[in-house]
Amino acid sequence: MSSMSSMGSSSTGSATSTPVDHDENAPLWDYVTKLIKRGEGGNNTKFKCNLCNIEFQGSYMRVKAHLLLTKDKGIRVCSVVKERSELLVEIKKAHEEAEKKKIMAQPKNVPLPPPSTSIGGVGGFRLEDYDPEPKKRKAAGNSPLEKGMNMGARETLHSHIARMFYSASLPFHLARNPYFIAAFQFAAQNNIPRYVSPGNNLLRTTLLQKERAHIALLLEPIKKTWNKKGLSVVADGWSDAQRRPLINCMGASDGGAVFMRAVNCEGETKDKTFIAKLLGEVINEVGSQNVVQVITNNAPVCSAAGSIIEGIYPKIFWTPCVMHTLNLALKNICAPKETGVAGFALDECLWIKHVIDDVMSVKNFIMNHSMRLAIFNEFVSLKLLSIADTRFASSIIMLKRLKLISRGLQAMVISERWSSYREDDVGKAASVKKKC
Ligand SMILES: [Zn+2]
User: Fold this and answer.
1) What is the arrangement of strands in the sheet containing 46-49, beginning at the earlier edge strand?
2) What is the CB-side half-sphere exposure of residue 82 using CA atoms within 13 A?
3) Which single residue of 39, 225, 332, 392 could bond 327 by disulfide (Cβ 3.0 to 4.6 Å)?
4) Is the pLDDT of residue 16 over 60?
5) Ligand 1 centroid to residue 30 C-alpha, Å
6) How far apart are CA 65 and CA 101, in angstroms?
7) If you measure from the C-alpha of residue 1 to the centroid of ligand 1, how many angstroms do you get, rounded to a whole number?
8) Can you give the pLDDT at residue 181?
9) pTM surpassing 0.70?
10) Cα 56 to middle of ligand 1, angstroms
11) Cα 79 to middle of ligand 1, angstroms
12) Alpha-carbon separation of residue 51 from 8, 34, 85, 240 (angstroms)
């Protein structure tokens, strides 16, 4: 139970501190102490008024009635609030502010754009068709074709869907999602009386479990091949949108890869024993006799965890991820260090580093100066890469792109516009010219 009010039960104090579970929509909970809470409905909540110290049972409705001195609600009004008018003013204000906020948060009743009056107008909305008075609106779809296609309803549905996208900031590429398309196709082809789309709760409970169980069933045939063909347990770390450190485990086999689990390692030290324990759990889940190898990236801690696994399961190998290994090799080639295991590469590969440094300085100069970028866009139709933190071989990708656009770059730096623009660092612009 997390709902103990922090105010204690002083019979005269008013709510000045904010309790831990302060609910903006129901601020008057702050004036009482919840004693028992069973179920979601709140009807079984037992609460004690912090002002008059009397215990009651019931929902927020009754808390409100008690504190706002509402009669005929079947609950005794608060004797302390009755005595102290300044307290009543304070409570009323908190209540009214919450109500106002609730109203503000409700969706505004903005009318949809009216359907256009002819097929020609579908898609392109013409201003002269706009009639703000819905009563006077001409009946859409009078021609037989329009009637057959139900053009009016079609357009209205379009508008509803568009409104959904804009109001919830849904990404536009959702419109390409085949399941999104299928959902509306299904809705349009089936007359389901009084249908209401699934709510928040249904989506994250019943429907989610149903989908999960169904997918698990679909994956069964792949899992059945594991004891014949064997599988690799693959693990990799990543961060989700909330920057939580996750470790993913997959079972990869001839039939395809099956997602096993994602573990939230927030607050954990991701050392070799932790990773080995995690891998061990997955290995036991799929049956250690089925596992051929575990594949992780090539970081020292993963390699050490691999050794632990090899120690526990003598028939299982640890294999470093090829992609990651190649990426490390490329990194050593592109940015050779003087010391360390790859120290010998310095003499051989230093020229590569110089090329990359030049490319970086050209790229940064253009990207950081808006005028230069405008000139660039005139000469080159491809975007200059803005290398995000792509995990693998980003330098190589950048070099490749620059090679692709090198003619445009050369034309750009010898152009009149490049040399006549002198508002930024002219020396740098000249050095960029040299490098291209
Ligand atoms: Zn009371």
Assistant:
1) 32-36, 46-49, 55-57
2) 10
3) 392
4) no
5) 12
6) 20
7) 22
8) 96
9) no
10) 9
11) 6
12) 10, 13, 13, 46
Instruction: Return the closest-CA partner of residue 243 out of 219, 266, 221.
Output: 266
Residues within 5 A (CB) of ion ligand 1: 49, 51-52, 78
Tell how far CA 238 is from the center of its chain. Answer: 14
103 Cα–ligand 1 center, Å = 27
Q: How confident is the model at residue 14 (pLDDT cuts 50, 70, 90)?
A: very low
356-367 core/surface letters (b: 16 or more CB in 10 A; e: else): bebbeebbebbe
- What are 196's strand-pairing partners? none
Distance from the CA of 222 to the center of ligand 1, in angstroms? 63
Report how far ligand 1's centroid is from the alpha carbon of 80 (Å): 6
Q: Is the pLDDT reported for residue 6 higher than 60?
A: no
Q: How far, in Å, is the centroid of ligand 1 from the Cα of 7? A: 14
Side-chain half-sphere CA neighbours of 159 within 13 A:
16
Cβ-in-10-Å burial (0-12, 13-18, 19+) of 191 comes to: exposed
Lowest mean pLDDT, pick from 258-267, 336-345, 352-361: 336-345
- Ligand 1 center–CA 32 separation, angstroms: 8
| Per-residue confidence (pLDDT) for residue 364, from 0 to 100 | 82
What is the C-alpha to C-alpha distance for residues 284 and 276, in angstroms, rounded to an integer? Answer: 12
Going from the Cα of 31 to the center of ligand 1, the distance in angstroms, rounded, reads 8
**Residues facing 248 on adjacent strands:** 236, 262
Distance in angstroms (rounded) separating the CA atoms of residues 370 and 384: 13
**222, burial (CB in 10 Å: exposed 0-12, middle 13-18, buried 19+):** middle
DSSP state letters, 172-189: GGGGG-HHHHHHHHHHHH
Q: Which residues contact 153 (CB under 8 A, 6 or more apart)?
A: none
For residue 104, report the distance from its CA to the centre of ligand 1, in Å. 30
State the helix-helix crossing angle for 370-379 and 406-413, rounded to 10 degrees: 120
Going by the DSSP 8-state scheme, the letter that residue 209 receives in this structure is H
